[in-house]
Amino acid sequence: MTKFLLGLVCLSVLFASSAFATVNIGSPTNGGTYTGPVQFSASGSTNCSRGVGSMGIYTAPGVLAYVVNGDQINTSLTLNPATYHIVITEWDNCGGSSTAGVTITVQPGGSSGVSITSPTNNSTVGSPVNFRATATTTCPKGVSSMGIYTAPYQLVYTVQGASLNTNLSLNPGTYNAVVEEWDGCGGAATASVKFTVNSGGGGGTFSQIQHAGGWGEAGQRGPNFINCSPSPCENITFSMAQNIKSPSLSGEATQYSLGGSQGYGDGFWNNHLIGPFSSQGMPDNNHTIVPTLHNFTYDVYFWAGDINLSQAVEFDINQFFNNMGYIWGHECRVAGGNEWDVWDNVHAHWVPTGISCYPNSNSWNHLTLVVQRTSDNQLLYKSITLNGQTHTLNQYYSPASTPGWYGVTVNYQEDGNSKQSPYSVYLDQLTFSYN
User: For a tag site, which of 3, 71, 94, 374 has the least CB within 10 Å?
Assistant: First the structure.
């Protein structure tokens, strides 16, 4: 009898020990249907004083498809179409183990999946970080929602529908983020991206700015070109409309329109990126970011039905601090002679570059502008690339005096011709990089 009781005590101790060892599975979900690589995330715990030694994924009895040291799993596995009874096991350093299981179905091929366009893989960005992704599914009920995991089990953002575009404030460090889509059939798909958030806001990229909030608009007419609003004013009409699906490259183009009844009126649109009124969540209240920035790239696609109705289209980069104003103005004169001009800040006039500018009508044009604030605080126009043809400028100018102004902004402007012929230009994939 004594031996029998002792045996019960030993068994109770053994069962008590295993009760404190667990496996928690975050992904995939039980009963889910997947297409393409399946994202696995799980954690293991144990009462073993030496901790969890390793974890593994069994896709079938005796088939150990993946193993990793430590108490965390975060990986993707490509599985053939079938129904799987997945078992995830943790092994501790005391010789114990525990398991948890899920049943999933992997569908063949199809178009289900997640595509991440921002941030790019292995990039270094500033905070806030712009996330843009789209999802597709073979489920006839479509994509229900999408979410962003910045770390295993850390679901920091969700949105209804098959696309997301948001900015997240993240601490400096390296992230292996996962974007997941959930469809209406109980299935899901994921994609991952690795990126680094730098410290001090020293550099980064803002994407899809044409789709962002914070745009201001105004009309301008010579000779003083003082802003007027709202439309109409000074015989000028101007407007912008976001979320344009066609023409569009991303499905999030913005239409900028100009018209009126008197010639040579302009439409002006401006967005504050860093500093007061920042549309990107970077107010820089302590003035520690803007003064450190030297290099800027303005990259955009633009489309017009008949670009020849324009007198000129203008793309500007602006930096203000310590009562100095840096306006890197770039104007493509269309009706004015098909030539690029740049802005002389001190003398406040346009300077012809000798570089031709012939954007295409009824077609997307790709423009990239690269500029720099030099170490001795001069404006340097470095290069203009239009539709794959790069022209190097290397032209230097002095900054203007702008007391009290602060921040980094971008402008887009449309100039009316002598008849103020109405026209629209669509901007898409407007990206701004800084460091």
Answer: 3
